[in-house]
Amino acid sequence: MTDTYIGAIDQGTTGTRFMVFDHEGQVVANAYEKHEQHYPEPGWVEHDPLEIWENTKDVVTEALADAGIDADHLDGIGITNQRETTIVWDRDTGKPVHNALVWQDRRTTDRVEALEDAEKIEWIRGKTGLEADAYFTATKAEWLLENAEPLKMQSSRAADLRDRAEAGELLLGTPDAWLVYNLTGNHVTDVTNASRTMLYNIHDLAWDDDLLSEFGVPREMLPEVRPSSDEQYYGHTDPEGFLGAEIPVAGALGDQQAALFGQTCFDEGDAKNTYGTGSFYLMNTGTDAVESDHGLLTTIGFQRSGEPVQYALEGSIFVTGAAIEWLEDVDLINNAAQTADLARSVDSTDGVYMVPAFTGLGAPHWDGRARGTIVGMTRGTRKEHIVRATLESIGYLTRDVAEAMEADSGIETTSLKVDGGAVKNNFLTQLQSDIIQTEIERPEVDETTALGAAYAAGLAVGYWESLDELRDNWQLDRQFTPEADAEKADAMYSRWDDAVERSLGWAREE
């Protein structure tokens, strides 16, 4: 009998990865390619959707070739993706009308402030579970329909674009929908990605007419919403296409929900934190959509075919790994691996705090005009102090969310599963445990985002039969327990709020 596998496309903020997993959840093939980041104006971030699609084909082909696996040995493909990132494309030609507006993009901050002035924040939160913010898809979609192709178009052309959208000639989607369309020809998204658009009612499980009207988004351009693990499948790859095989595309999850699924957080109270460009702390709240009183988001965790939606509380931290990249950008470090040695070389930050609010602050602060801030420097401050302060800031931001999570859920966090590139840094992971005062568990397979997408697709096609099989696959690599006592951790954390306060509201327009 020929071995078969499940493939997962992980379309992230900085690049696209394809991984192939076996029945034990072990990686048997892996390829990755970066795509270009475009910054046309301060606070604007864009990606080229066509580059992402070309890179997707390249990494799929490369991973299979390197591992010597034929495409027809894939029983299914799952997709996970950077959420909220917004693409509008022509239904017939498949060409985007503009670059994708990335989740980090802040160009619609004014629109969000107008919503606040109109006292519509609670109205939006009640339907979507989300804090009204430029982070989400709705205001990005509105901006694209008003301004796309070219940026300085005539008003009549803008009207044409909206008319075309109403006629169903243009399609809207997050990167999962873009990839499903290119792989299968179908316009489909899953419930987790839909729940991040600020256009989807997470209680009614439907696109919301009132929100569509508010943001001027025609229903005709929206994808069909399906379960995250879909036994009916989203479609099949074209046997005449680049893979040369007809493979079911059977699951999709936004990247953070995929990590929740890959970490086997299937039960109420299970929690994980993913450290990537940003960090995203999610707790499964079961079939109840728990409303947050402490600046967290209520979102959809996942849905399996024929089963109720599972909800989650989420703390979205916009910048963590990107703060380490910034250290490299400004030549304070040569590579990310250096941070541990530099931070360890000093006993403390010597009173320096760094708030990495490069694209505003997410949960629980929610200030789109906050900006990166370093405070407490003296003439004796060295780069080692700044590097350590940057690593500590990741812990402080995580503790902000952890405390909000406990307050909203009533569940004390005693153990936290972690994943993502940054947790390979033992010093940083230990620092997280010390600051949060919580046990941290790092799994052997740390690419849990791709693994979650594979699990979703694999369950749908019958590659795995049950959640218990997936739980059995989860293996601990290392557990970190607090080495600093609670009093020291509290003292380190005590002035963090003061530093955050100084970063707020900085990016005011002239």
TrEMBL record:
Sn-glycerol 3-phosphate binds at residues 13, 83-84, 135, 255. HAMAP family: Glycerol_kin. GO terms for cellular component: cytosol. ADP binds at residues 13, 17, 277, 321, 421, 425. Residues 5-262 form the Carbohydrate kinase FGGY N-terminal domain. GO terms for biological process: glycerol catabolic process; glycerol-3-phosphate metabolic process. Pathway: Polyol metabolism; glycerol degradation via glycerol kinase pathway; sn-glycerol 3-phosphate from glycerol: step 1/1. Its EC number is 2.7.1.30. Residues 272-460 form the Carbohydrate kinase FGGY C-terminal domain. CDD domains: ASKHA_NBD_FGGY_GK. Keywords: ATP-binding, Glycerol metabolism, Kinase, Nucleotide-binding, Transferase. Key enzyme in the regulation of glycerol uptake and metabolism. Catalyzes the phosphorylation of glycerol to yield sn-glycerol 3-phosphate. It comes from Halorhabdus tiamatea SARL4B. The keyword Kinase applies. It catalyses: glycerol + ATP = sn-glycerol 3-phosphate + ADP + H(+). Glycerol binds at residues 83-84, 135, 255-256. This is Glycerol kinase. ATP binds at residues 13-14, 277, 321, 421. Belongs to the FGGY kinase family. GO terms for molecular function: ATP binding; glycerol kinase activity.
